[in-house]
């Protein structure tokens, strides 16, 4: 029964699809804000005393990162009237850990945010597989159609990739400077993720039950 559900996930008529470029910009936007706010934190603090009262550059960047994340999610909701589970989880963790960072004046909370988010995603995906449920089949059924073996393999790969990202974040923030961690979070993690996604195309092609790019849709 579970295999049939995954292989023939129900279509959701009327669901709006966001332009991929716009979607990428909305996802990357808060990270870019975080990076530049950290680099220019002193100047921003001088220009906006209320932000300067929060603390050093990373605290200013954290506050603007939280704001940019909320704006990004709001714009996404206005455009398509729905929010994928991953951005929601990430946004909630950003707000919670960002608030703890500012309230307790402790950088550790915002630095551990990627570890927590990636760890949660890994636990959900790998845990689902342990119970015979490749959950990516429910998340990405509108993007492409795969057979059940394809969903299992893709779910396993993404689960392990999230484990890798969680471990990588811990290594970087614990062993390197704050500025290096911020730069790596934006300009390192994103390219690594894009490269991983591109590397999955052979698997998608092998297990696709419909053309990956159907121009008639």
Automatic annotation (TrEMBL):
Pfam families: IspA. It is a multi-pass membrane protein. The chain crosses the membrane at residues 21-38, 58-78, 85-104, 116-136, 156-176, 182-204. It is found in: Cell inner membrane. The keyword Transmembrane helix applies. The keyword Secreted does not apply. InterPro entries: YciB (IPR006008). Plays a role in cell envelope biogenesis, maintenance of cell envelope integrity and membrane homeostasis. Belongs to the YciB family. This is Inner membrane-spanning protein YciB. It comes from Aureimonas altamirensis DSM 21988.
